[in-house]
């Protein structure tokens, strides 16, 4: 299973998804025909991991992020946007998994890996958690 996480958790997600889709499509058409089937199989097995935060930890998340412009002001606003985007992805045939994130555990993981808590790190943490699930 190949795992893809979305940049910036869900903030600005449509732009990132379109960028990813555009890059994948342009690469696909430049591939030799014998590789296109393998590429399609790889995409069919791809999982998009989306950080799923806890409402009671939202304020703490806002305190620790290095990119406060990358997350919504309120949990309610974030959840509405996240659900909408997840539904759109699923309606387009994507395999989307919500990844429950404990803010303090993510902070520990980021500190151990010498990473700021930004969109890229949050996405990498979602991938890490999905990989841990797969091992079990």
Question: Any overview of this molecule?
Answer:
It is a single chain. By secondary structure, the protein is of the alpha/beta class. It has one domain (2-135). Helix content is 60%, strand content 12%. The protein has helices at 13-30, 33-44, 58-64, 75-91, 103-112, 119-135, and strands at residues 2-5, 46-52, 95-100. The protein has a 3-stranded parallel beta sheet, with helices on both faces. It is globular. The chain starts with a strand and ends with a helix.
Largest sheet report: 3 strands, parallel
Helix-strand string? EHHEHHEHH
The largest beta-sheet arranges its strands as: 1-2-3
Number of DSSP strands? Answer: 3
Note the overall shape.
Answer: globular
Total tally of structural domains = 1
Distance between the termini: 14 Å
Oligomeric status? single chain
How many H/I helical runs?
Answer: 6
Query: What helical percentage do the residues reach?
Result: 55-70%
Features:
136 residues; single chain; alpha/beta; globular; 3-stranded parallel β-sheet; 6 helices
What is this structure's SSE topology?
Blueprint: E1 2-5, H1 13-30, H2 33-44, E2 46-52, H3 58-64, H4 75-91, E3 95-100, H5 103-112, H6 119-135
Parallel strand pairs: 1-2, 2-3
What would you say about this model in short?
The protein is an alpha/beta fold and about 140 residues long. The chain has helices at about 15-30, 35-45, 60-65, 75-90, 105-110, 120-135; strands spanning about 1-5, 45-50, 95-100.
